[in-house]
Amino acid sequence: MSARVHVAGVGMIPFTKPGRSSTYSEMGEHAARLALADAGVEYSLVEQAYVGYVYGDSTSGQAALYGLGQTGIPIINVNNNCSTGSSALWLAHQAVASGAVECALALGFEQMVPGALAAVYTDRPGPMSRLDQARFELQGNDEQAPMAAQFFGGAGEAYVDEFGIDPAVFAQISVKARKHAAHNPNAVFRDAVTVEEVLGSPRIYGPLTRLQCCPPTCGAAAAVICSAEFARAHGLSADVVIAAQSLTTDFATTFEARDMRKVIGYDMSAIAAKEVYEAAGIGPEDIRVVELHDCFTTNEFLTYESLGLTPAGTAEKFVLDGDNTYGGRVVTNPSGGLLSKGHPLGATGLAQCAELVWQLRGQAGARQVGGVDLALQHNLGLGGACVVTLYQKVDLR
Question: 82 catalytic, yes or no?
Fold first, then answer.
């Protein structure tokens, strides 16, 4: 039996372009302080901390949290590519749900450099080598295109080939992202764009243009996780719980199906979502707000189907009907998503968490989705890992 786990507090600093941020340790400390203040909890009450980042030296988590004090608690550093922040959250959730601790902190940050993601170590086999080989066998390699764009652009091409859709529909996702971000002070890119501007921006790979690719940014976000008993004992107003959560890694189909959609983690997403729905006793039709991993427009498009928000082969209609935004069936990425906030890898999953907690509390301002008591989060990393989390607002009276 696992105990009910509450999200007692969340914090996020505004994301910024590389070269304009504070140091990673300063950003991490700031976000952690915001989450603790939001919860009304002193750092001395935190029993474990899980700190996620991708580009950083070992024990960077300690460097960030030591600014809050040196309490001797376990601080575990986490690296799971783009799903790092949610992986830290998954570990904190697991620690509290198991009864190992009453209060845990999940923190994610990234101090990134300009330009596309690239390998740091070139003197050893890369962890993406198996995925790279699968991609090369299916579509070759473009020396001029960023690696990630080749993966996700190729997946979009595979969908176009099967269903015969107009790839221009992907551009509408960028337009929607900017409309949502206009109301988010934490987003970097808040100016409106048109479909014509998106399609007219430089082509990157396949159907992807520059304005359909999330840029690297710097930032940090955090969440305080606690048990119901801890919340009661400390008088916390913790009315958001993690109703269900799943972390999956690649299945054999990633490599055996010979489909770029599978290579970029479609099955990881679909199975994680299925596990979450079954654990919570709900279906995708019950979801009205989602923060999902829109590293590229094509991935958001594919994720509509992998999460079951719309049946296979119908994502184009889902977009054209406006079912992915306010006034439609499910508001996707009310924060503006990665396309508008940018993607500081270690922080992204916890920034998604913060947005959904604010939505469930009714604290999202002009971004607020009305009448929601369930919220779904999807955070994907190639290599691979996917975390799907369901949050629920509960009555603590």
Answer: yes
Q: Are strands 289-291 and 331-332 parallel, antiparallel or unpaired?
A: parallel
- Across the strands, what pairs with 388? 246, 378
Dmax (CA) for the chain in angstroms is 59
Q: How confident is the model at residue 2 (pLDDT cuts 50, 70, 90)?
A: low
Instruction: Tell which residue, 205, 40, 42, 68, has the closest CA to residue 51.
Output: 68
Cα–Cα distances (Å) from 245 to 59, 91, 296, in that order, read 27, 11, 24
Q: Averaged over 320-324, what is the pLDDT?
A: 98
Distance CA(225)–CA(32), nearest Å, equals: 12
Residue 251 has pLDDT above 50, yes or no: yes
Q: Which listed residue (82, 103, 213, 218) is catalytic?
A: 82
pLDDT in tens, 357-376: 999 999 999 999 999 999 99
Give the strand pairing for 5-12 and 374-381. Answer: unpaired
**Beta strand 208-209 pairing with 331-332:** unpaired
Average pLDDT over residues 126-139: 95
Task: Identify the CA nearest to 9 among candidates 361, 364, 341, 376.
Answer: 361
381: which strand partners? 385
| % of the chain with per-residue pLDDT over 70 | 98
Look-up of token digits 């029993």: 47
CA 345 to CA 357: how far, in whole Å?
20
**pLDDT value at position 187?**
94
CA-CA distance, 245 to 265, in Å (whole number)?
17
The rounded distance, in Å, linking the Cα atoms of 90 and 87 is 5
